[in-house]
Amino acid sequence: MTHEIPDDLHYTDSHEWIDDGGDALRIGITDFAQDELGDVVFVELPEEGESLNSGDACAVVESIKAVSDIYTPVTGTVTATNDGVLDQPELLNTDPYGEGWLFEIDGQVPDDALGATDYREQTEE
Amino acid sequence: MNYQQATWEQETEGGEAVNEPLLSEKRMETVSHEDVDLPDELVRDELTLPEPAEPEVASHYTRLSQMNYSVEHGPYPLGSCTMKYNPKFIEDVAALEDAAMHPDRPEADAQGTLTLLYRLQEYLAEIGGMETVTLQPPAGAAGEFTGLLVARAYHRSNDEDAERREVIVPASAHGTNFASAAMAGYDVVELPSNEDGRVPVDALEEAVGESTAALMLTNPNTLGLFERDIEDIAETVHEAGGLLYYDGANLNALLGRARPGDMGFDIMHYNVHKTFASPHGGGGPGAGPIGVIDELTEFLPDPHVRKADDGSFELSEPAESVGKVHGFHGNWLVLLKTYAYISRLGDAGLKDTSAMAVLNANYLASQIDLDIPYEPFHHEFVASAGDVDAAEFAKGMLDEGVHPPTTKWPEIVDEALMTEPTEALNKDQLDILAEAFTAASRKTPEQLAAAPTTTAAARIDQTGAARNPRLSWRDLEGNDE
Amino acid sequence: MTMQRIQHDEGDRTHEPAESSPFAPQTPQEVEEMLSAIGAESVEELFDVPEAVAFDGDFDIDAKSEFEVVTEIEELLGRNADRTEFLGRGHYDHYVPSVVDYLSLRSEFLTSYTQYQPETSQGFLQALFEFQSMIVELTGLPVANCSMYDAATALGEAATLAARVRDTSGSRVLVPETIRSERRSVLENYTEGAELTVGTYPLVDGNVDLDALTELFDDDIVMVYAESPTARGAIEERLPSIATLADDHEAAFCLGSDPVALALLQEPAAVGADIVIGDASVLGLSASYGMGLGLFAVKQAYLRQVPGRLVGTSKTADGRRAYTLTLQTREQHIRKERATSNICTNQAWVALRTAIHIASLGASGLSALAEDCVTTAAEAAARLNDIDGISAPVDDRHHFREFVARTNRPATEVVSELAEKGFLVHEAGEFEVQVCVTETNSGDLDDLVAAVREVLG
């Protein structure tokens, strides 16, 4: 099965994506990650204003039979959260790179972030 | 097999299709307390509950019962759960009027009950190779928790509690092991299995040390394999100053053939509702007595049934007791049923139980055409559904008139079907169960997706249930989607 | 009699050849066929147990016939003294109608497992959903699980939940000084792992001493627990004030009660309770030497932190309403060491019995039963109070089922002399006894009163 991996995003080994196209960095989980999880039924987000260090478990995504911690790939302060996914967790399944984003954080894209090509290689392994 | 579970499909007043209306959809009554001699502010305004007449109660629950698969319907081969026949007479024993007494009765007035509990402690100690047993933990997980409290009290008595903060748990262990360790305040160290599905002694040697409080292990493990290196494992843990804990979920495989105490375990729990056939009751009650070695006896929960010098039985507080893990004496009626079962079987019957359980599992395995990657297994085996999702495979089996095995666990086997037929099935039933495996493996993905079709309910939308939790009949009002 | 089945290869063992379990149905011929299908010579060969740890001894437990076992247990339990119990203190005996036994003992309920395959377990799931719904009606709280082991373990779970839901740290739980010591001990074992300590607050004249509690309260308290009725049988009148105090300090307020009391007393939600725990087996089970059913209900905000199983509704593929275990990611089989609790096996069958009992009483019957618990306790107290040497109730409060009486002789002596006359009451203090009356012993009240008159009058 092939998964959508947009060329203009950065990725992590743990299947988060980083969009640096706006003022703050926007974070979400990849198409591959949502597919592995199955139907998402519950999302817990960090709080706006919370300071995070890269690698912190800062959000939780639950399906029926699995719980996944989401690790922030970026150090910084949370500037916005997507409350839409709290009411409609299925957005993570239907639109993981769009309306299913999780939070925005004020910080820098880490040096070890993967490009789309490298991430594609990794998920195809 | 041609099978159809009972159902009474009908529509509620709101037009919703249901199998049997809720009591709240039949007749509700709202009452208020006008004549009671209490100030108004202490009394609720009103109470609304169902108000069925007894014939309606009987009909409602009889219909519900018929929409429920059970051990007496046929094979129920849930791995690790030990769904075997529950003898009828143990229910009659539990219904005796003398069993109904209040827990605060003085010892002198409760000698019969205390004698029976004492004998059960002795039986279990002998069966497990342990010095002393407490019957207080009300379930297996409560037994684990109690065992870890005992371990903690032991390390505390050696002034080592502050350092010994870790409990080692094999990756393939029951989820309760991890959760019990966390509840007792321990950090959990997970130990991966080795290639042949057992605890790797070399990795264990790396993992143990001055921070080790205990290793929790089940044997045979969740793959049904005997941990052949158990003596080395015990030595490794003991040399590091840790204690060895035995999860008794699979003790039924070893009844009369090997005892945790002889293997070097220091603490164990017994799942009496698995090993000793007290009924599972739709999820409980069970009982989870724990046994300990001599050195740990003084840490057991309070009270402990002991024999006094004059031959009477008393409730005494062990010198260094961890205190209580149940408000009273545990699940007494379950313990009473356990005593009845053990007394009925005796040595010979207990030994035959493990023999027939292991024979049945091996025979069943020989009759099904699925990969079973780990052997030699004992009372249960883990087959792989291969390319098929094990949960889907299970739905396909439901239509063959049997209950499917435990699915997708342990994770060491892809698409796991963890299967435990127990000693209670005869060869014909095992053949029917084997045919159900075969029938399910022949189904197309589309057929599996459409299954089950013979149960009271067709496939249920679990995602919808979790996204929009409706947990009482109040949540259903005006909410029919 | 049991039949001989297998000639084990006994080696040097000296005991008799094994007889069979009466609950394993294989015939010797079937055993042979099965071994042959497996390709094994003997059943013993299937065991992979190293010789060094193999057990070749005996347990010295003789097999018995069913008749022998039943007779033995009848004889054993018959050794329990013949006493009329006026015992309570948090554990009660109400009459359980026959319909509860006959329906709950149906093997479809009794011999089924946890409902992990909901399509084939709709009956039990619906019964548990109805149990949860009844507890919701009784507590006014929107979420009730389908059981903990008993009231004490439910209280322990409540405390760890309260610690988890708090934004700020806190390390203490407050309980009434009158709490049963056993219940407190269980609580302390549950809280130790969560690094919480348990302290007590005093009562005055049977109810919470609000001034003292206010004095004790600070932001370090994660949960305050109160009981109504209390372990001494008094109805607690100051619940709303406790709730306000808890609120002011961001602590959870946990109320301990039971389904009969809840049918009459002010709804927990209305007095500000965040969590309700208690023993629900006051309906559905006899006193059963302390076996119970932990009631556990919470407000909506705590939903994701609830321990134990929850049943919810959903739809089937063909559009019918159906029931299923839900929000299972809270539980140990998925979340492991981060689960809300380690509970797996619970008291589901007792919950079924309680639900059937409540259904068979109905709103009117349950309500009447609860009212009787107030009037009977008051009458019994008044009758004892008429006797010289005893005054009742000690606490100037309304009572439910039971009350404490003051005696002019040491309670130890009074309790033991009453026992000799065939009546059991609690020793509640140096000069205090506690008496519990329900419909199961109220017919013996005249005799108790007469006995008390003989002992104290």
TrEMBL record, chain A:
Key words of the record: Lipoyl
InterPro entries: 2-oxoA_DH_lipoyl-BS, Biotin_lipoyl, GCV_H, GCV_H/Fam206, GCV_H_sub, Single_hybrid_motif
Domain Lipoyl-binding: 24-106
Gene3D superfamilies registered for this protein in UniProt: 2.40.50.100
Biological process annotations from GO: glycine decarboxylation via glycine cleavage system; protein lipoylation
Subunit (UniProt): The glycine cleavage system is composed of four proteins: P, T, L and H.
Name of protein: Probable glycine cleavage system H protein
Source organism per UniProt: Halobellus clavatus
Biological classification of the source: Archaea, Methanobacteriati, Methanobacteriota, Stenosarchaea group, Halobacteria
Gene this protein is translated from: gcvH
From TrEMBL, chain B:
Keyword terms of this UniProt record: Oxidoreductase, Pyridoxal phosphate
Location of the Glycine dehydrogenase C-terminal domain: 354-441
GO cellular component: cytosol; glycine cleavage complex
Record keyword Oxidoreductase present: yes
GO MF terms held by the record: glycine binding; glycine dehydrogenase (decarboxylating) activity; pyridoxal phosphate binding
Pfam families registered for this protein in UniProt: Aminotran_5 (PF00266), GcvP2_C (PF21478)
EC number in record: 1.4.4.2
Stretch list, region Disordered: 1-20, 444-469
Keyword Phosphoprotein in record: no
InterPro entries documented for this protein: Aminotrans_V_dom, GDC-P_C, GDC_P, PyrdxlP-dep_Trfase, PyrdxlP-dep_Trfase_major, PyrdxlP-dep_Trfase_small
Domain Aminotransferase class V: 149-281
Enzyme class label: oxidoreductase
Catalysed conversion reaction: N(6)-[(R)-lipoyl]-L-lysyl-[glycine-cleavage complex H protein] + glycine + H(+) = N(6)-[(R)-S(8)-aminomethyldihydrolipoyl]-L-lysyl-[glycine-cleavage complex H protein] + CO2
GO biological process, one term: glycine decarboxylation via glycine cleavage system
Residue ranges, compositional bias (Low complexity): 449-458
Name of protein: glycine dehydrogenase (aminomethyl-transferring)
Lineage: Archaea, Methanobacteriati, Methanobacteriota, Stenosarchaea group, Halobacteria
Automatic annotation (TrEMBL), chain C:
Presence of the UniProt keyword RNA-binding in the record: no
The keyword Cell cycle belongs to this UniProt entry's keyword annotation: no
Name of the molecule in the record: Glycine dehydrogenase subunit 1
Keyword terms: Oxidoreductase
Source organism, top-level taxon: Archaea
GO MF annotations, alphabetized: glycine dehydrogenase (decarboxylating) activity
Domain Glycine cleavage system P-protein N-terminal: 25-449
InterPro entries linked: GcvPA (IPR023010), GDC-P_N (IPR049315), PyrdxlP-dep_Trfase (IPR015424), PyrdxlP-dep_Trfase_major (IPR015421), PyrdxlP-dep_Trfase_small (IPR015422)
Record region (Disordered): 1-27
Biological processes annotated in GO: nucleoside metabolic process
Species this chain originates from: Halobellus clavatus
Gene3D superfamilies reported for this sequence: Aspartate Aminotransferase, domain 1, Type I PLP-dependent aspartate aminotransferase-like (Major domain)
Compositional bias annotation for Basic and acidic residues: 1-18
SUPFAM superfamilies, sorted: PLP-dependent transferases
